[in-house]
Specification:
single chain; globular; Purple Acid Phosphatase, chain A, domain 2; 6-stranded mixed beta sheet
Amino acid sequence: METIHILHTNDIHSHFEYWPQIHRFLRDQRQEFEGKGESVFVFDIGDHVDRSHSFTEGTGGKGNIYLLNEAQYDAVTIGNNEGITMSKQALSSLYEKARFDVILGNLRHQNGGLPTWATPSEIYTTAQNIKIGVIGATAYYKVFYEALGWEILPPRAQLQEEAKKIKEKCDIIICLSHLGLKEDRLLAEACPAIDLILGAHTHHILPDGEEVNHSLLAATGKFGDFIGHVTLQIDVKTKELVRNEAELYRSASLPTTTADYEALENVMTKGKDALKEKAFYNSIELKQNLFGQSELASYFGRALIDYTDADCALFNAGIFLGSLEKGWVTKEDMHRLLPHPINVCTIEITGKQLTSVYYESLNEELAEIEVTGLGFRGTLMGAILHERLYENHRGRLFIGNREVVADETYILATLDMFTFGFFFPVFKELPKKYYMPDLIRDIMMRYGKK
């Protein structure tokens, strides 16, 4: 028998609170297992990068790659945070200094070519000549990838095809899947050639793994709370997989040293220093108000309309995580105020539909909703706010100085988090345009410079 150890992380999202423990654990485990003559592979399943952290923002994500290098990862795949919160140019240069493979089969240039920094599969050879084929894919955000100049392929079909290609060249197949638990289960049913699916994206936790068809599914939740360990035993003569076991280690319970934290803090400082650059001069104090209109919100609303040339704007007060003082505003100030990897979107909407949305948005209960995901990095939704859209004293809805007409079409600027239909269902079906790669903080900084 040969024992093979797979150590894995996913959805770190630039939460580095436990990175010293993770780093030390991965390196110590590799040393221990290799000392016994056993093979070890370390994988990350995407969304390690998250621009909501100042270190990631300041280094353009390359600081994250440095950390992965130092922890001796063998391969990664990308998540949507690497894929659609960064420009095509930024993603194309992200892995320039990576000392690991980026395994990603379902992302292409729009001419059909593979990115030079990625490979659809890789085959690794263990100490006893067992061949391990690794494939990978990321979540299918078609509209967003196309807006950035990429082509994204449906992942399940692509992974099945890639597994078929390498099946005869390897003894076991591992999939790095940033697709979510539901898709992982469907993939396991559709492709029995895959022996192990390391999952991500939906932040699910599988403490002991989950058997589906012929595959073992494993995942570690989010934010580095857990590290995954899958043990595989292979019969060296028959090349058959005879045992697979999954377990999780809680990062908070792992040992570390003061020196580990000091080393990490030194790395973090370099990234944060890059955000000290002045962005624009703010001539008046702009205060936040979570439950109503504010000078800050009005400024932001005007920035959205200026950027998109829309007729009016709708957004939530919860996106502002503070106020802006009078004086010079740095990139760090803007990042602290609007850390979300959120883009602006314009929607073509009729007057009748806009009127309905406007009155729905006045529901005060919306302000108290706790929002998770969708790129939002705050806590509460806050009041739904409007710019150039208001009801006059006679109860009629106006855009600027024009009364809204039921059968006319208008352009509404809003946040991409609203276009998935969770809060205003009509938005999901309406024609829309996503503005990428600029995030909402970039748009506000650009307006400030004007």
